[in-house]
Design brief:
- Helices cover 91% and strands 0% of the residues.
- The chain is built from two helices and no strands.
- The longest helix has 119 residues, at 25-143.
- The radius of gyration is 56 Å and the shape is rod-shaped.
- 0% of the residues are buried.
Length: 153
C-alpha cells in the first residue's frame, strides 16, 4: 500500500469515528454507510494499483532476464546444433565404413564360395568321367568277353 493511501485510510477511519459522535442518530447510519462504501472503493482502487504495479515490475524483470539470457540461449543453441551435426556426420562416416568393409567381406565370401563350387563341380565331372570310363570298360568286357585260351597242362 502506498503511504498516501494509508494516510487517507487512517483519516477516513478518524472521520467516521468523529462523524458518529457529531451527527444525530438517524443521519449517522447513512453517513457511516457512505463512509464505509467510499473506504471500500479506496481499498479496492489501492489493491488494483498495487496489483498493476507488481505486474509492471514483474514484466520488466522478465524482459530484463530474457534480454540478459538471450546471448546464452543463442550460444547453447549454436553449440547444440554443431554437436548434433558432428554426431550425424560421424555416424554417416561410420555407416559408410561398415558398408565398405562388409561389401569387401561379402565379395570375398562370394569369391570363395564360387571357387569352392567350381572345385566341387570339377571333382564331380572327374568322378563322372572315371565312372563313365569304367562303365564303358565293363560294358565292353560284358559284350565282348576276351577270348579264352586253353592252357597246356
Amino acid at each position: 500500500m502506498k503511504l498516501t493511501s494509508l494516510a487517507l485510510l487512517l483519516s477516513a477511519a478518524a472521520a467516521v469515528a468523529l462523524c458518529a459522535l457529531a451527527v444525530p442518530p438517524a443521519h449517522a447510519d447513512t453517513t457511516v454507510k457512505q463512509d464505509a462504501r467510499r473506504l471500500g472503493h479506496e481499498v479496492s482502487h489501492d489493491a488494483r494499483d498495487v496489483g498493476h504495479s507488481i505486474a509492471d515490475h514483474s514484466r520488466k524483470f522478465g524482459r530484463t532476464v530474457a534480454r540478459d539470457t538471450r546471448d546464452s540461449r543463442a550460444r547453447i543453441k549454436d553449440k547444440s546444433k554443431a554437436v548434433g551435426h558432428t554426431i550425424a556426420r560421424r555416424s554417416r562416416s561410420a555407416g559408410h565404413t561398415i558398408a565398405r568393409r562388409s561389401k569387401a567381406t561379402s565379395q570375398e565370401i562370394k569369391r570363395r564360395s564360387r571357387k569352392a563350387g567350381h572345385a566341387i563341380s570339377r571333382g564331380a565331372h572327374q568322378v563322372g568321367a572315371k565312372i563313365r570310363t569304367e562303365a564303358r570298360k565293363i560294358k565292353a568286357f560284358i559284350e565282348s568277353p576276351p577270348a579264352t585260351t586253353t592252357a597246356s597242362r
